[in-house]
Each structure stands twice: as structure tokens, then as C-alpha cells.
Design brief:
This protein is mostly beta strands and 251 residues long. It is built from no helices and 19 strands. The protein is 0% helix and 46% strand.
């Protein structure tokens, strides 16, 4: 009878980039009213002027005349985001999000040893609002069509959570989790011994940010290491899950 415990993780990504464009003509004495079932926008003026100016010495674009400049709302904490009065969208380079390898193989798990694999995440976005990359797992590591699972890690001291990393260096503590090192990562990943479990979508857990910045991003890169360890009574078989990354540029 085989006692091999194998693990495989399928990675996927979702890039959210929602842009809405409006075009209208405004007379000198009438306010403009835009509305639907979910919003009403009423302004006498959106911009006095905008466009691209150039000479032999410079090239500049601008928007002028917004009466209420600023960022209103925030993705993930409110139902809307509006960037008003500034050039929140400017095409210097296209938005890109790259996962270096979409299949992680943690190999054959044996007692007293970790199975690990890693890949890189790379993001470029020139939006003034920066970006956030969220992550979650579809379910714990599981033998497909069965109820046999490898639990999400709680780390050596039993204290790590989906939002707080802790040290996990003892392979006798079974579980599945990840570490991330590189650009714009959460501060609780102090070094490569600190791990978290992924938020479990099957249990309706909230996805968590793994990279984020309020600045313009150019090839910001981090390395994600996946780690698993089995208990002595873990069933033999091939355990799988899928980890989803959601990359959200801010404008």
C-alpha cells in the first residue's frame, strides 16, 4: 500500500482595471447631470481645459479647473472610488501583472520534513493611486473528491493567522502556508521563516493583501514560498488546491 503524500498547487490571477469614460457637451449657463439607478453626478463644470502641450523644450499634459480635487472612497473598504482634479490615468506604460510559474509542486511529503516550492510576482502600474495584490486559496490542500485535507498552518506557536505571520520552522507542526519576501510586502513577514495561512475562500474568509504600495510601480517583484508538512496519520494521495491572486491598480 502506498504511503506517498504528494501536493500540487494551481495558481491563477485576476487583474481588475475598471475605467469608465464619459463624453458630453456643456453650455455656458447649464449644469450637467449624469444619473443611473446607482448614482447621481451633478456639476456645472468638470474641467476648464485639458490636453497635451509641447514645444522644442518640453512635453506636458494637464487638467485644469476641477472644483473638488482629491480621492474619494477606497477600493475594498467602500463601494466606490473617484479620483477628481488630477491625472489619475496617464498612459506611460501599460498595466502588467506576471506570475513566473502557474504550477507549484511541493513534492512527496515525508515525516519530519517540509515540502516547498516558490515563484515570483511582478507588477508594473503607473496609476497615481499605486496598487494592491490580494491572495486567497480556494480550499485547504485536499485529495480531490475526498474529505482528506492538510490543514492550513498555525505555525510553531499556533499564533499565525491570515493577516499576521509567525515563525514556522518545525516540520512536526503540520499544515500549509506561505512566506513572501521582496518589494512592498506586509511588515509581519520579518524574514523567510515567517509564514501565514492563506485566506480560505471555501470558509468565506476575506482575501488578504500580499503586496501593496501607494506609489507608481515599475517591475516591483517579490518571491512567494509555499510550504507544507504532514501529520503522521495523513492519508496517502495527491493533495491539491488553487491559489488566486487579485491585482488591483489604483487610479
Amino acid at each position: 500500500m502506498s504511503t506517498r503524500t504528494l501536493t500540487r498547487i494551481i495558481l491563477s490571477s485576476l487583474c481588475l482595471l475598471c475605467l469608465t469614460a464619459f463624453s458630453w457637451r456643456i453650455s455656458e449657463v447649464q449644469a450637467e447631470r449624469l444619473e443611473s439607478d446607482s448614482y447621481v453626478i451633478q456639476f456645472g463644470n468638470f474641467n476648464v481645459t485639458s490636453g497635451e502641450k509641447s514645444s522644442s523644450n518640453y512635453n506636458v499634459t494637464d487638467t485644469v479647473g476641477q472644483t473638488a480635487a482629491g480621492a474619494f472612497g477606497e477600493y475594498g473598504t467602500s463601494g466606490y472610488f473617484v479620483g477628481a482634479g488630477f491625472q489619475y490615468i496617464y498612459q506611460i506604460k501599460t498595466f502588467s501583472f506576471i506570475i513566473s510559474d502557474l504550477t507549484m509542486d511541493l513534492g512527496e511529503l515525508t515525516d519530519g520534513a517540509f515540502g516547498t516550492d516558490n515563484h515570483t510576482l511582478e507588477i508594473t502600474t503607473r496609476g497615481a493611486g499605486g496598487y494592491t495584490i490580494y491572495a486567497y486559496e480556494q480550499h485547504p490542500l485536499r485529495i480531490p473528491t475526498t474529505s482528506y485535507i492538510i490543514n492550513d498552518t498555525t505555525c510553531d506557536a499556533g499564533t499565525c493567522t491570515t493577516s499576521a505571520a509567525s515563525i514556522w520552522t518545525n516540520p512536526s507542526i503540520d499544515g500549509f502556508g506561505f512566506n513572501i519576501q521582496g518589494d512592498d510586502i506586509p511588515t509581519d513577514f520579518v524574514n523567510n521563516t515567517y509564514f501565514r495561512p492563506f485566506a480560505n475562500d471555501e470558509a468565506a474568509a476575506t482575501m488578504q493583501p500580499v503586496m501593496s504600495s501607494s506609489n507608481i510601480a515599475l517591475q516591483r517583484t517579490s518571491t512567494v514560498t509555499y510550504q507544507a508538512a504532514k501529520a503522521g496519520d495523513t492519508a496517502a494521495g495527491q493533495f491539491q488546491t488553487a491559489v488566486v491572486y487579485v491585482a488591483v491598480p489604483g487610479y
